[in-house]
Each structure stands twice: as structure tokens, then as C-alpha cells.
Amino acid sequence: MENTEHTQSSGKQDMAGLLKTHGILPTQQRLLIARVMFGRDQHFSADQVMNLVNDSRDRVSKATVYNTLGLFARKGLVREVIVDPSRVFYDTNTSDHHHFYNIDTGELRDIKSTEIQINTLPELPDGTCAKGVNVIIRISNTGQQADQAG
Amino acid sequence: MENTEHTQSSGKQDMAGLLKTHGILPTQQRLLIARVMFGRDQHFSADQVMNLVNDSRDRVSKATVYNTLGLFARKGLVREVIVDPSRVFYDTNTSDHHHFYNIDTGELRDIKSTEIQINTLPELPDGTCAKGVNVIIRISNTGQQADQAG
DNA sequence: GTCAGTGCAAACCCTTTGCAGAAAG
DNA sequence: CTTTCTGCAAAGGGTTTGCACTGAC
């Protein structure tokens, strides 16, 4: 595979390269979605991506947004983040890191992997291998009271 | 088959007490659900609870199962575990601990809090307080290969 | 007797799917 | 020209809701 460095600044060409690098055929819709996601904030629900893409003059159908996000995740371009039972978030940061999840606002925020140091990891169940360690720190806005102490 | 007369007096009282302790009115259906959950394995989807409850001669409607699980979670009797976008798990173990999640089988398994030692925790965003730290180690059965190559 | 809880089915919401037409190579 | 992708709308599956009935106190 060609090494197409993605400088994140100029756009269309780099994105096409980025997609190809990940084994993804860079169609028009996929480029739109990729450009929208890699150009801004880094956590998106499918719905947010839908809105961002369709704010511009171009448009992509809902089915294609879902299919594309699933494809990106499978190919390692983005990472799925499961913190909310009602929707999946997609994170353009695929490096090793963790998350704050604000249960009041739904905001998702990165924690650098260097900011959480895990000393001991348990031994894995027999016949399994680790696919990833996710730390989620659920936070809420001070002053508000949840039902349960965590 | 199963002995459906086992908890007529003693189990019922304990469960009723447990519910009351958590500020939950111990109705018949809630007792059934609590008895099913606290009597076996410790991670349940709503659907599993539904099946377990309705295996016996008694029955509880789907709406009541969902409402009850939500109530139990809000009252701190069980803990919601969010690891799978397609369903919520309820954990009868509310003490501080973490989870293995087998992405192949969907199996959820406890990790004692003593088995994971976290050295450094990041500082919280302004105006927020921590509601819980969840560590999820996603595992898969050895030999199987995920899609993510590039 | 009063008020909360329950059951049913329909509503909801996010996500996936089937298929015909369009685009990519 | 062949294969893959896209769009639409409908289906799916877990969860929630509205309302009349039942049960708890």
C-alpha cells in the first residue's frame, strides 16, 4: 500500500489517501463524511454526522451514513465508543486513550492514556485475548444530584 | 422441573427487606424479579430477566420488567453496565469492580477492583464530579481475527 | 378508598436491510 | 461492462409510554 500521509489540513486529496490506506474505496459520500469528521471535533454520533454532512450543499442518506461509519470502524479509521445505551459514538482518535462521559450533558471527552496509569491488569480468561482496555469515567455537573452514589 | 414453592416465606422476607432498604415498594412482580436476579448469575439483560421470570409459573409483563430494572438501577440495587450498543446489562454486584466483555460470546465477567490498580487518575473537567470509574477489557476468543487490518 | 404499580399494545428511536438505480474502475 | 455503492423506505429490535385495571396499604 502507498503511504499517503494525511496532513489533516488541505482536504480532498489527503482524505482519499487516508481512506485508501485503510482499504476503503474513496467514494464521494465517504469523502464527505470523512472530511466532516476529521475536520472538527472528534466524537460523533451517527446523527451528528448526518447533520454535519447535510448542512453543506452536499447530502448523504441516513443509510449511507450508518454504513459508512460502520465501515470506518471495521477498517480502523475511527473507533466506536460505547458509553450510552441509546447511541454509539465514533471517535476519530484511534490511539490508545480513555474517556470522560458527562451523564448530564452527554459530552464525551478524551483522557490521554498517559493520564491514567494502570498498575495491575488481571489475567485474561482462558482462551481469550485482549482487544482493548477502555476506561470510562462517568462524571456529572456539580450541584446536581444523581440517584445513586457510584 | 423446578420447585416453584421454594421461597414462599423465608426468601420473600429477605428480598422484601432488601427492596425496602432501597426505598422500593416490594410488590409481587418486583419480588419475583429480585429473586430471579439475586438467586443466580449476576449479569442480566432485560430479555434474560424476562425469560427467567416467566419460566416459573408466575409472569411479569415486559413493560414491568423494564420499568423494574430501571427502578432498581436508579435506587442502587443493581448497576447498569454499558458495553454493548444493542442492550443494557444489569449487574447485581454494585460494589466497586470492573468487567471483561467477550465480544464473540457477549459474556460479561467481573474483575475484582483489587485486580486492577489504577495509579493516576486525571483531573476532572471544571464543575464536574466523578460518578464512577468503569474499566472494560474487551476480549475475544483466541484464534478468531477481527476485521481491523488496513 | 386511595394511590401507586401492572399489563398490554402501540409508539419510539436508533440502526439495519432489500432492492433498483448510479458510480467507480 | 462489471462490481460496488448509494438512496429510499420499510423492517428490526430493544426500550418507553398511555391508559385502564389491579393490588398494596
Explain what the structure shows.
The structure is a homodimer of 150-residue chains. Chain A is of the alpha+beta class. Chain A has two domains: 12-84, Arc Repressor Mutant, subunit A; 94-149, no CATH class. Helices cover 30% and strands 29% of the residues of chain A. Chain A has helices at 12-21, 28-38, 46-55, 62-75; strands at 43-45, 79-84, 87-91, 97-102, 108-112, 117-120, 128-141. In chain A, the strands form two sheets. In chain A, strands 1-3-2 form a three-stranded antiparallel beta sheet. Chain A has a three-stranded mixed beta sheet with strand order 5-4-7, with no helix packed on it. In chain A, helix 1 (12-21) crosses helix 2. Residues 1-12 and 145-150 of chain A have low confidence and may be disordered. At the A-B interface, strand 2, strand 5, strand 6 and strand 7 of A face helix 4, strand 2, strand 5, strand 6 and strand 7 of B.
Structural class of chain A: alpha+beta
CATH topology grouping of the largest domain in chain A: Arc Repressor Mutant, subunit A
What is the domain tally of chain A? 2
The main pleated sheet of chain A reads as: 3 strands, antiparallel
CATH class of the largest domain in chain A: Mainly Alpha
CATH superfamily of the largest domain in chain A: Winged helix-like DNA-binding domain superfamily/Winged helix DNA-binding domain
What value does the Rg of chain A take, in angstroms?
18 Å
Number of helices, counting only DSSP H or I runs of 4 residues or more of chain A: 4
Report the principal-axis shape of chain A. globular
Mean pLDDT of chain A: 85
- Cα-to-Cα separation, first versus last residue of chain A: 48 Å
